[in-house]
Amino acid sequence: MEKFTVDGVVIRTSVTGESDRIVWVLTRDRGIIRAFAKGARGTKSRLHGGTSLFSFCSFSFSEKNDVYNVNEALIKEVFFDLRRSIQTLTLAQYFCEVTEKCVPSECCEEEYMRLLLNSFFLLSKGEKSEALIKSVFELRLCCIAGYMPSLLMCGECSEYSTDVMHFNTENGELLCSSCGKNTSSPAFSISVISAMRHICFSDFSKIFSFQLNEKQLMKLSLITEQYLKNVMGQDFRLLRYYKDI
C-alpha cells in the first residue's frame, strides 16, 4: 500500500453508501485522483469539509490496486463565497467540468491547479467581471493543454496589427483585415485581439490584469468559449446552464 500527501482541490463529488463520498481531486503533480472518503457525508466527520466541492486541502491518500482512499484533508481554503449566487456557483462548477475534461491522467503540470485556484479566488472576491475571469480561464487552459492559438500575426501576410482582425475559432488562426475580409472568420477589434494575446503570452501573475469595456468583454467571452469547445470537440452542460441563468 502506498501512502502520500499532496495539495489538491475537489472538482467533483458523488455519494456512495450510507455516508461516504467519492471525490475527484485535481492535484498539484499527480493529475486528477478519484478517491473514496469513508463517512465524509456525516457532518461530524473530520473529512466532511475537506471533501466538499471546491475545497483546497492538503490531502493524505492511501492507494492499493489503483483504489485510492482519503485518510486526511487539512483545509487550506473552502471558497465559501463561490456559493453567494447561483450564477457564480454555476460558473465555478463549469470551471471544474472543463478541468476534468482537459487534464490528462497522471498529469504533472502544476499550472492547471494554479489557474483553477486563481479563478476561484477572483470569483469569490467579486471584484472582477465574471466574463473576464471566464475568458482568461478558457483561453489560458487551452494554452496549458497545448492548444495555444496563432495570435502573433496574420497567418497569411504576417501583419501584426490592423484596426480590425479576424479570428477563426476552428483552427485558431488570426487574419488581418485585408486577408480576412473574404473569409467566414468573424472580425474583432484590435482591443479584443490584444486581450487574447495578453492572456496567452503574459506571465501567469498578470493574466487577469487587463481592461475591456462590457461590449468587448462579451465578444471576448464568446470567442474563448467557442475556441475551447472546438479544440475539445464537445459542448459543456454547465456552460449552457450558466448562459441560461
What do you see in this structure?
The chain has 245 residues and is of the alpha+beta class. It folds into two domains: 2-77, Beta Barrel (OB fold (Dihydrolipoamide Acetyltransferase, E2P)), CATH 2.40.50.140; 84-153 and 158-244, Recombination protein O, C-terminal domain (de novo design (two linked rop proteins)), CATH 1.20.1440.120. The protein has seven helices and eight strands. The chain has helices at 86-102, 111-125, 130-144, 177-180, 190-201, 214-232, 237-244; strands at residues 2-16, 20-27, 32-37, 56-64, 67-77, 164-168, 173-175, 187-189. The strands form two sheets. A five-stranded mixed beta barrel has the order 1-2-3-5-4. Strands 7-6-8 form a three-stranded antiparallel sheet. Strand 6 and strand 7 (173-175) form a beta hairpin. The mean pLDDT is 96.
